[in-house]
Amino acid sequence: MVRWMLLLCIFPVCLQAQVYRWSEVNVWLNRMEKDSLMQLEYRAALHFHELLNDYRSQKKLDTLAFDPLVWLAAYNHSVYMRNLGRLGHNQEDKNAFFTGEMPGDRYAWAAGGMAPDAWSGENVLMNFSAGVVGDMDKIARHIAEFSFNQWKKSKPHHENMTGKQHGKHGVAFAVQEGKVWGTDLYSRGSKRMDWPKE
């Protein structure tokens, strides 16, 4: 039986969340080194990416590149939803976490003005998958698997997961007290952005 507890008790070190442009990604990387919650969120994203590509391979579909810029746009939207406490594809409240009304606007904002290619789909979710007891990797895997299955069971979300028009994606989670906010943004491009070198 799965035992639940508040993630806050597991990961007490959590710095104030914020949104980032690609030009500020080194700030995010430096913060992640000190913030166990950010490490958990990113680890869950990588596990989800593996699950998605395994599934696409089983369906005889091209696998997708994990693009850090697309991920950053997804991360910003997950942070926005977490801080607003509301699930949705549009950002209507122009608060400190606002990065653009529509997914394409947010992708362009994260890129610093112009996205390198067009977005081609977006899935969002909220669930309570982070409350499982275990080490960081176990919790990250649970978030990824739970979220993967949540989207897979929904026809429109599943269609995004198996879309042939996508070349890359970025999935990101924002966690608060066991609650998970997730965004999986898809892009038509095939050229992947690389993490900056130190």
Helix content range: 40-55%
Q: Specify the overall morphology.
A: globular
Q: What is the distance, rounded to the nearest whole angstrom, between the alpha carbons of the first and last residues?
A: 44 Å
Rg computed from alpha carbons, rounded to a whole number of angstroms? 16 Å
Tally of separate helices: 7
Largest sheet report: 4 strands, mixed
| Strand runs, count | 4
**Kindly state the mean pLDDT as a whole number?**
90
In which order are the strands of the major sheet placed?
1-3-4-2
Q: How are helices and strands ordered from N to C? A: HHHEHHEHHEE
Tell me the strand percentage band: 5-15%
Contiguous low-pLDDT stretches (5 residues minimum) are 1-15
| Secondary structural class | alpha+beta
